[in-house]
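Batch manifest, entry 17 of 40.
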Amino acid sequence: MTLSFTRRFWMVALVVVATALAPIRAGAEGVLVFAAASLKTALDEIATGYEHQSGQKVTVSYAATSILARQIQQGAPADVFISANPDWMNVLETDGLIRADTRVDLLGNDLVLIGAVDRTEVGEIQPDYDLKAELKDGYLAMALVDAVPAGIYGKAALQGLNQWEAVRRQVAQADNVRAALALVAAGAAPLGIVYQSDAKVEKRVRVVATFPTELHPAIVYPAAVTTHAKEGAQTFLEHLQTDAVTAVFLEQGFTLPDR
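Output type: structure tokens
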């Protein structure tokens, strides 16, 4: 790997980190939603529409699911939590920090390999796809592979293809999936693994390949009201399950799990 490429990568990476999605604090009024970073584009639109419709303020704090869950464990005043996988929701349920009777599997998603817009699409990725050769001396952008759901799913998929060991030293791990997306969009990494919904909202990348769903655990976004939620949290969670909101999620690349 050339020195100039390495310098360029880390310069872009520092910019991405500085501007990456991070938790924000909200005042006491309104509903405070903690949501996985991959939900940002869709949920921003949905929250704005809900405010206009209901007159109730909705503040959304986006970050990696693992970070948000730990903040709730430490007493963060979230009213609604939307996780990018069931495991972190299970942790909060075990800790008594969500109302189990409100928990619902809200959404699903697909995992994709992305690259620059001039890359050739190959369809569903197969074991004979030589990812290391496609990377050359570049990086593979992924969310944290041992903590963030998108990274965990991505690592599992690569292991299922018997390609993880070949590329793991070239993996550039980002704090969340949107940060991984930004690395590819900025040209700092030639390829990345993100959700289909992320690829759909970034015009500077294209889907190079899709990962068969059997290569990784099912991608499920559970949502729930927290134990100490303010009034209005349940109403907003119910709003997220309406047909109109579902249409927004589907348009932006999400899928629906069996509810």
